[in-house]
Amino acid sequence: MPSEEEIRKSNAFNRNNGRSKQELARKLLKVPDNVGGRTPADEEDWNSKVLFEVKSGKQVDPIATKFYNAESQSQEFQDVWKEKKPFSMVAMPNGTGDGLFICRLSELQNVVAGLLANWKEYEKKGE
């Protein structure tokens, strides 16, 4: 069984790692700095029009694995298309009429541009 000191060190490492992932996510999402440049400790304090919750570490490994597998599966089709399309994954849980949308933060602008083009065409066709 780990000692209290080992647990304390592990907790401190996890907390610091989580905060560094939060800050990386904030920068990749291009969320503006807070007034005065203060880096918030919680996502709820971000200077954003969208509410975020950043999760990191082992708890997100199953989600990431599902995403990477879906991305690899999609890549087989990407290879035959002339146009490179940004990838996103949609998870549709049972028992709900809603879904979850996941994409790489580094591809988010391309995904949003594609979605906006889709929505514009959808509205034009009156669907």
Task: Please tell me about this protein's structure.
The protein has helices at residues 4-28, 61-78, 108-124, and strands at residues 88-91, 100-103. It has 127 residues and is mainly alpha-helical. The protein folds into two domains: 1-54; 63-127, no CATH class. Strands 1-2 form a two-stranded antiparallel sheet.
Q: Could you say which overall geometry the principal axes of the C-alpha atoms support?
A: extended
Helix content: 40-55%
Q: How many discrete structural domains? A: 2
Number of helices: 3
Q: How would you write the strand order of the largest sheet?
A: 1-2
Cα separation of the termini = 61 Å
Structural class: mainly alpha
Q: What would the average pLDDT be, to the nearest integer?
A: 88
How does the major sheet shape up?
2 strands, antiparallel
Rg from Cα:
19 Å
State which percent range the strand residues make up.
5-15%
> What are the segments in which pLDDT stays under 50 over at least 5 consecutive residues?
none
Number of strands: 2
| Element-by-element helix/strand order | HHEEH
Record the SSE blueprint.
Elements: H1 4-28, H2 61-78, E1 88-91, E2 100-103, H3 108-124
Antiparallel strand pairs: 1-2
What would a concise description of this structure say?
The chain is mainly α and 127 residues long. 47% of the residues lie in helices and 6% in strands.
What descriptors fit this protein?
single chain; 127 residues; mainly alpha; 2 domains; two-stranded antiparallel sheet; 2 strands
